[in-house]
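Protein 1 of 2
SEQ + STRUCT:
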Amino acid sequence: MMALFLLLVLVAVVLGIIGVAAHGLGYLLAIGIVIFAADLIFFGARLTRRVRRRPVR
């Protein structure tokens, strides 16, 4: 799962760079930001599920 997270972050960064550098492709920057935000939310949800521990007896 960590590989998927890193791959999506890399894709978001590349789309953002292309969107900023290329004239008229600002929508790629927006797509990159959306992918990055969705990736962070997904990773955060998985992380909070793992943090829960059983109560000590």
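Protein 2 of 2
SEQ + STRUCT:
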Amino acid sequence: MSLLEVSNLTHSFIDKTLYHQASFALYKGEHMGIVGQNGAGKYSDFLRQKEHLRQDYIRQYYAQQKKIEKTEEYIRKNIAGVNSKIAQGRRKQLERMERIAAPTFTHKPIMSFKELPLTVHEALEVTNLEIGYNDALLPPLNFIVAGGQKLVITGFNGIGKSTLLKTLVKHISAFSGTFQFAEQVKIGYFEQDLSWEDNMNTPIQIMSEHYPKLGVKEIRQQLARCGVKSTHTTQAIGTLSGGEQSKVKLCKLLLSPCNFLILDEPTNHLDAETKEALQKALIQFQGSILLVSHEAKFYQQWADQLLNIEDLM
């Protein structure tokens, strides 16, 4: 199948096509390339071929986009000069060109944090800390997060987990007590709420404002690494799903150097592939982590300690 023939296929259609080919081959006991004679590795082979289709499509799409940009630049510079006829000819070529549709799928997410060294014994010490808004929500809290320790906070909704994190990052004031981060600590914070300064800004604009030294091409690549679909990078952030907005927030965090992650329900809205990529990144992270999560499956393999706030009441 040629590239142009699949240019209008959606991600789900590619999935279904390959999967049905694999299933049919198994049923008939045939060898069709993506399925072994004994059926071994049938699904993993299907995934590899699907990923190959993805990569080939995206690579050729961006190659065509680069060619279009260069041609348009030539036309702008020469349409009124001595090379006007050549420029007009190239304009007609562009008009006749069969455009490859922008991909609606991305590579499988791959995440890693920009990690700073953390060599302290105690990264955070919390002493008799009371949190809340009008009244204290919990009894005084006392705990320590060691350097490199991964601590998960659990408890029922509304008990005060998010309030605790907002207090630690100084978004709200403490009622009483103290908390102290080590001087070496650089915090990376993921807030659960999906709020933006301007809901009409696109993911590319949001990333450009926070990281002005990055070019648009690199921003697109970084967003793609977090699983943001190419077609969504130029849409207003407020029109995107909760999952796509969370991926943009994660992308911002991944590019911010830190050694102490404070994460408030980061898996909310995320699809399974993105959760897996984030989980791997947190396992590889050598700094300290303070995580609020209701998904035991997400953290049970790597958390060093659990703090159930319900036990304090």
